[in-house]
Amino acid sequence: MMNKKIHFHFLPVLCMLLSVVSVKVSFAQNGDNGKNRTESVQLIPIETAHSATVFEVGKDNRLHMVYLGSKLPENKEYNQIIGQYRQGTDYSEVSDVVYPASGSQNLFEPAISVRHADGNQSLDLKFVSVQTKQMDKDIKLTEIILKDEVYPFEVHLFYKTYFATDVVETWADIMHEEKGSVRMDKFASAGLYLRGSKFWLTHYHGDWAKEMRPEQTLITHGIKTLDSKLGSRADLFQPPVFMIALGQKAREDAGKVIYGSLEWSGNFRVDLELDNLNNLRVIPGINNYASSFDLPKDSLFTTAKFLYTFSDRGQGQASRQLQRWARDNKILDGNGQRLTLLNNWESTYFDFNEDKLRSLLKDTKSLGVDLFLLDDGWFGNSYPRNNDHAGLGDWQANRKKLPNGIASLVKEATNMGVKFGIWLEPEMVNPKSDLYHQHPDWVLKQAKRPEYYFRNQLVLDLTNPAVQDFIFRIVDTLFTQNPGLAYIKWDCNAVIYNAYSLHESQQGRLYIDYVQGLYNVLKRIRAKYPKIPMMLCSGGGGRVDYGALQYFTEFWPSDNTDPLERIYMQWEYSYFYPAIATANHVTNWGKQPLKYRVDVAMMGKMGFDIPVHDLSAPDLNFCQASVVNYNKIKDIIWHGDQYRLQSPWTNDVASLMYVDRDKMHGVIFNYLVNARYGSGSHTPIKWKGLDPNRKYRIREINLYPGTTSTLKGDDVLSGDFLMTIGYNPKVDASRSSVILVADAVQS
Ligand code: GLA
Q1: Pocket residue to mutate for ligand 1, from 341, 345, 544, most atoms within 8 A of Cβ
Q2: What pLDDT score was predicted for residue 539?
Q3: Which long-range contacts (CB under 8 A, 24 or more apart) does 24-29 make?
Q4: How confident is the model at residue 88 (pLDDT cuts 50, 70, 90)?
Q5: Is 193 in the pocket of ligand 1 (CB under 6 A)?
Q6: pLDDT value at position 21?
Q7: Which of 143, 220, 554, 719 is the most exposed place for a label (fewest CB within 10 A)?
Q8: Nearest to 696 by CA among 659, 643, 641
Q9: Atom of ligand 1 minimally distant from the CA of 423
Q10: Which backbone phi and psi does 706 adopt, to 5 degrees?
Q11: Taking residues 336-361, what's their average pLDDT?
């Protein structure tokens, strides 16, 4: 699927605009300043299977937002909604305008702010036309054209609906025909206006090894802004995902909730403003922080996409919608297969040579996983990458560690029947590198200020096409020289400090063009290597968003692989991202037994990052058997529907399950998360998503060698029983993690 991103077209815009008009409403002659707009001229409902976003063109010719919620059976009744709410005073007549601009009658946070070519700062967008195109059975695109009456300035709003999964993607094209450039000070993707009584916001904060910590707050009057200014990625302290529960706090299986996320891998900003009428304005977009720029005449600026989904059946339903949408429409190869792997990072760090890697290839084979992933430390000669102070940028195999290059290892792996993958951090440079000395102008930094490092490195200037080309060639050369190479872990361990590009004529474009430059490279890579699996990594979960995931098959949620921590993190990630894309590795972090660590890694895309040769014989046997077990259930985890059963935040035992689409098979994960005396599952846990009329045989899998299940082993129970009474996995301190499988019994 083609995705339009930020770009500048130098096209004659006007003729393009006029050709798409299907419905035209002429501007009010004298203008009524927005008063008396209760009578709508035209209603524009944007519907999915269960939800509707409804706009109306008021008598003032502005586009107002009427509603976002459950689809009503009587389409024409959307007309009646606004009348049921308290009407505002004169100054709030424009407060529900869909894409509010600044400098005219809007008194609230704008979606767009500009300075026209003549220096004037006022913009007032009026409706021109709407057009709808059915793209395929599921996808519909609505384009609404708005135009200023005084200046030749236009905004086209797009709403792409995914009918079955109730997801909407929205973005804006901004263009003008003024006599010079227009300065863009704010350029959000969209504006939502939600009417209601109370709004509960769930958002996330974190840091390295502390990703996805949720907070839920009642939104109070004023503006709450979620944002990031890291430049090279969206998240480290705050991810670009959030949810808004309407009326009351978010609940798993009931209540109205909207999930939102910006598809953008850099600075983002979401303003949530509760106004004088107690309604909520949501304005998501690329962050305008240090990003004012001039838009030349006849050019087009396309904002990032904002996606949202509404559910009136709680968070669980919303997340299943989003997960399915992501697999069907966004994540690269979202419905395909994934490779289990052995990574060497935590078993060797930078300290390895060819012999050590050969023995790790044997370990990969003996473990039974699909691929060996060679991590950081394999490159750099003038400045060998023996620690994180040197070598980034010099992507040639280190001759001392790997005298026969990567090629001989790839060959050896192939001969052994395992695949080979490699770590890259191609956007970065260590000052101790040949690259830094050869191309000082390729580095983002302030020439007059001392260099300031994040993990001893600087960020390359991806706004520069020469740098984009360099990065593409790193990847292309690796694949050309090693056709057997099967996987890339793409890391990004630094933020942009001292933002300045020698290549940019307008520094205000740097943060935007950086991300666009990255996407250009990724597009080129995907054009040549459409299916090679790539992991999106950033010293942990700093870099997952749906802008990037269209080029990646999976992401690294956190360097923190302590399984107890991971239960909470993976739980929170699962609201927004499907298990097939969530890479979980078994490591030596944490105090839990090996079985617990493996079981936690299984509820996503499993890998290992442990010294296999140090494992005792029973531990190795267990890991080998786990891989076999995982291969039997991975399809359900990767492609099925996920149900969160019992939250780790409020229970001794966290529990979640996956059910395949035919409701024939389920996998249920249960983990003890409370170490206090007597903690465990003392009552049955209600399962979800099964067919009430089918019977299921329940068995425990992935037992540690020499242990037996305390469950009967031959329970056959109806879906109805399992969902209304539940099933007790008998989790306690002596069996702190339990995986159950439910298979429908053929009648
Ligand atoms: C980041 C990644 C780790 C590892 C190191 C290598 O921190 O998250 O998994 O690849 O880089 O330097």
Answers
A1: 345
A2: 83
A3: 24/128, 24/129, 25/57, 25/61, 25/127, 25/128, 25/129, 27/61, 27/126, 27/149, 28/59, 28/60, 28/61
A4: low
A5: no
A6: 34
A7: 220
A8: 659
A9: 10
A10: 90, -5
A11: 98
pTM: 0.95
pLDDT of residue 84: 85
DSSP for residue 390: B
Residue 87 pLDDT grade (very low, low, confident, very high; cuts 50, 70, 90): low
Query: Would you tell me the crossing angle of helices 594-602 and 617-639 to the nearest 10 degrees?
Result: 20
Distances from the Cα of 262 to the Cαs of 224, 286, 319, 574, in angstroms?
A: 16, 8, 16, 17
Q: Are 206 and 196 in contact (CB under 8 A)?
A: no
Model pLDDT, residue 710: 93
Distance set, CA 640 to CA 539, 634, 655, 685 (Å): 29, 9, 16, 20
- Tell me if 374 CB under 6 Å of ligand 1: no
The pLDDT score that the predictor gives to residue 85 is 80
DSSP secondary structure string for all residues of 676-742: STT-S--S-B---SS-TTSEEEEEEE-PPTT---SS-S-EEEEHHHHHHT-B----BTTB-EEEEEE
pLDDT-based confidence at residue 82 (cuts at 50, 70, 90): confident
Distances (CA, A) of 214 to 217, 531, 568, 575, 652: 10, 34, 10, 11, 19
Q: Whose CA is nearest to atom 11 of ligand 1?
A: 539
Strand partners, 11: none
Q: Please say whether the beta carbons of 532 and 479 come within 8 A.
A: yes
Lowest mean pLDDT among 78-87, 228-237, 689-698: 78-87
pLDDT at 257 over 60: yes
Tokens 């895309």 belong to residue: 605
CB of 375 sitting under 6 A from ligand 1: yes
Looking from the CA of 396 toward its CB, the CA atoms found within 13 Å total 9
For residue 242, the SS3 value is: strand
Q: Which atom of ligand 1 is nearest to the CA of 556?
A: 8
Residue showing tokens 């598809």: 263
Kindly state the tokens that stand for 322.
Answer: 């989003």
Query: What pLDDT, in 10s, does the model give residues 375-415?
Result: 999 999 999 999 999 999 999 999 999 999 999 999 999 99
Per-residue pLDDT, 31: 36
Element (H, E) at 510: helix 510-528
Write the residue with the smallest CA distance to atom 8 of ligand 1: 539
Measured CA to CA in angstroms, residue 624 lies from 595, 617, 704 at distances of 12, 11, 11
C-alpha 19/C-alpha 21 separation (Å) is 6
User: 86 falls in which pLDDT band (50, 70, 90)?
Assistant: low
d(CA 120, CA 44): 32
Percent of residues, the chain, with pLDDT higher than 90: 89
Contacts with 746 (C-beta within 8 Å, 6 or more apart), sequence order: none
At residue 245, what is the residue type? A
